[in-house]
Structures are given as C-alpha cells and as structure tokens.
Amino acid sequence: MLQVSPIKDADARAAILRGVPEAGADAQILLLTEADKQLGWVAVDIKSSVLRMLAMELGGAAPADRLSPEDAFLADFLMRAAASYGANHGAYRISSHIPAIEPILRPLGFTGENGIVTIDLIHIVHVTG
C-alpha cells in the first residue's frame, strides 16, 4: 500500500532541503513509500496560503521531461497528498514549480506559465470547514 507522510529524519529533511534554495523556513518533505521502500518525495512549503510544490524526486531522480506511466501515477499521487497536506495546514491553493510534471497537471485544471502552474485546492481535495 502506498503511503505519504512527512519525513521523520531531521537530518535527511535538512539534506534534501539544502538542494531546494527557494524553500521557506516551514518547508517539509512528504515521503512516498510502499512497505519499506522509498518511491519518491516532494518538497513543499506554504507561502501566502499557497502550498508550493518546489521539488520532486521519483525513484531516486528528478522527474524526467517525459514521465513514464508509473512516474506519472506517482507524481499525481504525491501532488494529491501535497494538496491534502496544504488543506490541513491552512492553504487554499496549490502551485507546482516543477515543470516536468506540468503535463499531468494541466488536464486537471492547473493554469499558469513560466514553469509555475496553480489551482484552487477545492478542485483537487475535498475541503471542509
């Protein structure tokens, strides 16, 4: 079963975030695992009520310009988990700063340019309250 949760190892979190200079002080790494196997991660933070996906790794590498069907599935799974995380932490929009995953986001309604696409969270996850 696939599971996404914030990374628990503070040193591993810090090491990943060193490679994401635009990450804010509240940045988090959401880790995608299946059983004990790490499948990928997404670096996120929240700025002005927008959950920003800043970097992603799938299978040990940044997403390729052309995603395989499996990588597209995993990237979509991570995006939806990030959206849920954002909704639970006060965000109302989600943005992706990861141009490689833009082709899977635009059909969902994400819009934007220059490698940054956004959408209201309500279009991705059920938001209550």
What would you note in describing this structure?
This protein is an alpha+beta fold and 129 residues long. The protein has one domain: Aminopeptidase, CATH 3.40.630. It is built from three helices and seven strands. Strands 1-2-3-4-5-7-6 form a seven-stranded mixed β-sheet, sandwiched between helices. Strand 6 (111-113) and strand 7 form a beta hairpin. It is globular, with a radius of gyration of 14 Å. The N and C termini lie far apart (29 Å). The model has no long low-confidence stretch (mean pLDDT 95).
**Biggest sheet, open or closed, and with what strands and sense?**
7 strands, mixed
The radius of gyration is: 14 Å
How do the SSEs run, as a string of H and E? EHEEEHEHEE
Count the E strands. 7
State the distance separating the first and last CA atoms: 29 Å
**Fraction of residues in H or I helices:** 25-40%
Q: Name the CATH homologous superfamily.
A: Gcn5-related N-acetyltransferase (GNAT)
CATH topology descriptor:
Aminopeptidase
Number of helices: 3
Residue stretches low in confidence (pLDDT < 50, at least 5 long) are none
CATH architecture name: 3-Layer(aba) Sandwich
**Strand-residue proportion:** 25-35%
User: How are the strands of the largest sheet arranged?
Assistant: 1-2-3-4-5-7-6
Quaternary structure: single chain
Domain module tally: 1
Structural class: alpha+beta
From the spread of the alpha carbons, the general shape counts as globular
CATH class group: Alpha Beta
Mean pLDDT: 95
